[in-house]
Write a structure and sequence with these properties.
The chain is mainly α and 203 residues long. The chain contains ten helices and five strands, in the order H-H-E-E-H-H-H-E-H-H-E-E-H-H-H.
Amino acid sequence: MDELARLAGITVRTLRFYRERGLIPPPRREGRIAWYDDHHLARLRTIAALLERGHTLSGIAELAEAFDHGRDVGDLLGLGAPTEEIPVRLTPEELADHFAGQATPENLAAAMDLGYLGTDGEEIVHISRRLLDVSSTLVREGIPLADVLAAAKRVREHADALADLFAGLILSHAPADRLHRLRPLARSVVEAELSLALDRRLR
């Protein structure tokens, strides 16, 4: 415990508090000896990054509970509603491979803040295969993951505004049960306008 606290840059008292709150899983025991490992250290570093971003211990504890008990975190990720996006299950090692060493606690915290990442048992769940593929490709093209996530946050704000616009337009002229059927039309308009906007920017 002393060694783990030192590596994580916290006090043993804080570490015990995190254990009592269920923020980190119990150690592996061999007789009277308790062993902590790299997974515990990674969890502590992620907790520190989430705290720095303003998350509460209660919110972090909810994610930790999902991780440790295999609870479905679809609700935490906003996957309860119908969606065209396909979530992806990854091991921590597979996630690290996607982002070439840039899956730092700070970047993981930012992705969790956006709702891109959650946990289910010992697996990490990414909310969208398309977003995972695009973001990992951008990183391979030389764009830092931190900048990709910062841009994603701004895109989210504009996407929410566009969704509000189209939902209001459709619901003011059609029954609510047609919203799902008309959804592809709204997406096509946004894709076409973005393509034209990129043409104008490139010119």
